[in-house]
Automatic annotation (TrEMBL):
InterPro entries on file: Leu-rich_rpt (IPR001611), LRR_dom_sf (IPR032675), Zyg-11_UBL_adapter (IPR051341)
Protein name (database record): Uncharacterized protein
UniProt GO cellular component terms: axoneme
One Pfam family per UniProt: LRR_6
Subcellular localization(s) per the UniProt record: Cytoplasm, Cytoskeleton, Cilium axoneme
Amino acid sequence: MIPSLERLCIKAVQESWFWKVQKRQLEHLPEHAANEIFIALFEQGALDAISLEMFQHCVTEAYLNGNAVRSDWLAYLGRFLYLEGLQLEACLKLQDDSLSRLLPLNGTLSHLSLKGCRGLSGKASYHLQRLTSLTYLSLEGTCMGPPTAQRISALPQLSHLNLACSPVTADCTRALASALSLQTLSLSGCDIGDGEVQLLAASTSIRSLDLTWTRVTAPPLMASLTFLSLDSCYLGSSDHANHIVPHEASHSVRQQGGCPVVQSDRGVALQGSLQQGCLQHLELQGLQLDPTAWLRGAHGLLSLNLAGTPTPATSLGTLSKLTALTSLNLQVVTSLSNEVAWHLTSLGRLQHLNLAGCPGLNDASLPALWALTALTHLQLSSTGIAGLPGMGLPNSSSPVSTAESPSWASLEQLQCLELDDTRIGRLGCRALQPLRGHLTSLHIGGLSVDDMACEATARQGTSLKCLRLHGSLITQRGLIALKALWSLEELRIQGCAFMGTSARISLVSELPQLKCLHWDGVVQSLTELRAPMDSESQQARHSHAAVGPSASESLKLARFEERIKYMPARLQLLRKQFEADNDCQQIAATLRQLLPAELIVP
């Protein structure tokens, strides 16, 4: 793929020092290019406090981290005329008075992140409350203390606040409940319980609340709440059981995996919010109890996450009544089986479904999944699925015969399919061919993924933009087959231990749209891989006069034959007819109808 002129300019700036004497030209850079150059130079260690002045007229978003960032850096950042977003993460050298250098940005600065800046204390909040233009503020992992929340709650435009892993008290939540503009609040990882959280019930503006990894056992009843995350709220060490479960509450505690598990009637508040229809998105991942009893009557719920919960198979039938669901996550719900999967067929609006890590699923459940015709994203990784109907495990059965259901062709809107660590092989990959034309992302992996599976995958057509392959049986033959996926933009290959650099160079040269290549977890430099091919092309152009017409045509035909090698049988037949028939005009006309113009030999 030929890089754009703008991309070449950005790359040239990053690789030289001449930008230090081009201040006037930097001022006229487009903001997105200036932002990218700024971040790249910082990551290379090419920026210091004084050089920040070069970007004060062009940068609108800046990301800085590490101990190199000190108070003098903020003094120069305070002079940026158009700075809208600033991320200062893990800048341990910053002190409370450092934030006073950012006050000149009031009026333009709307997003500020101080994540992990542990050198800041509650005194820094005096400066934050003067940045009245802030709409987003992250204080995650700081030690600012309770007075901070009381002061920043008065910011008139603040709509998103992240206080994760920060000290929060009842006075904090009481002050946040009075914030009129606050819509999104994250208290993830805070040492708070029901007493502090119940004070948020007075809020009329908070629509999204994250209580992940807190001691909450009863969520607040809030009429304005549409998103609630209670992930892992019932988890804690047995040494702190008295803090997790108040003595005055009516409850029962049982031990599971060394963690106390609460079983109480406190789900009444949550059930009330669900029945009112205001709560639309609910995250219950990691809860160590069955939450399905609270879901009765939750007809307005759009998104539900029950990943990792010990929900029994008998309770999963409750989900069939949540007909408004568009997203459902049942990852690692080990009780899910083929029979239970048929309860999901009533969820006709379901678009995102995650069943990864459910070992009880195999091909006998596929007809039930094919009935969900609105699906756009389907995750079936770490299951017993091979992609073939009627090929389930010996003891599996389904209430409806697989002959009564269509194949993968019924999922006409499916865009993303994940089949990592499954039993899928070449036959399963062939069965996926009805998805060609609309499937844009495909993940396949397992002990059966070999070269023939790659060849079957290559027939998915030009709609595929993201492909992930995981299989130790893939050789160079399988990689050659992937060259037919011309529109591929992202490729992740895992487990190909015997593939050298030459194989990667050959593959990258045939995928002009490729933007990202991950090889065994390592991001590959496409520029370095394409460099040898570019040099060969230049040598070929220089020697074109000496090659002669016949040799040039031979090269074109060889390249053409390589490209159609893994195309359907129709094109293979045409190739053979092209070799045997003298009337080539008719063959050429047919090829022009079947092939893109770039592949037609003149």
